Amino acid sequence: MAEDVAAMPERAFAQYLARLKREEKDIAELDHVSGQVCRNILKALCEANPEFHHQARICLWEYGRLQDALSHDSPEDALRRPNVFQVKTGTKRKADESVPELRTCKKCGWGFLDEFNKSGEACCSHPGSLVVDPTSSTWVGWEEDDHGPKDSEENRKLWPKGFRWDCCDDAGDEREGCQNEWHEPVPTKKQRVSEAMATWRQRKSILKFRKTDKSAGPVDLAAE
After folding, report:
1. pLDDT > 90? residue 142
2. Any idea where the domains of the chain sit in the sequence?
């Protein structure tokens, strides 16, 4: 992300920063809506998007694991019984601070709680890339002149079985990774705004220095 910001023209950076701030504000507004509204939004998104539904189930399972640790129930039972993190009826709070923050891992894409990220085996992901599997039945009858190239990001999402992981040769639709390590959280919008501003200030400082130091040669700002 920092490299992209370093290479942006000033106007493009201003637009990028404005978009990040709008998105940060939109997400922050969820703190002020009722739990029922949030549930309605969540259910609508799950109905419309199978992948979103899958991710939501993973997040629910993660909270169920924590309830299991506190109540000695199974994760499934913990999700069926009254939520131990639920705010009591009648209390007025901006947010329920007893509910731990859920994060998303940038490597495996799954939701996780810090409570379960205390070992180097919490995350199971593929460190490699998806490459076309020419032996897959997905491509039977596929003519690139008619259907377009097989090797595309869109096809990776629509037809994962037509690809293989080059790190382990697993099928592209294999969700279980081949490498265990720590979860690495996706930066929040607020963190991304701060990082973008820091990178931009660094870029401006370099430009200012180059203007005053006539002997300095050209610098690749993206590499800085």
Report:
1. yes
2. 98-124+180-186, 127-176
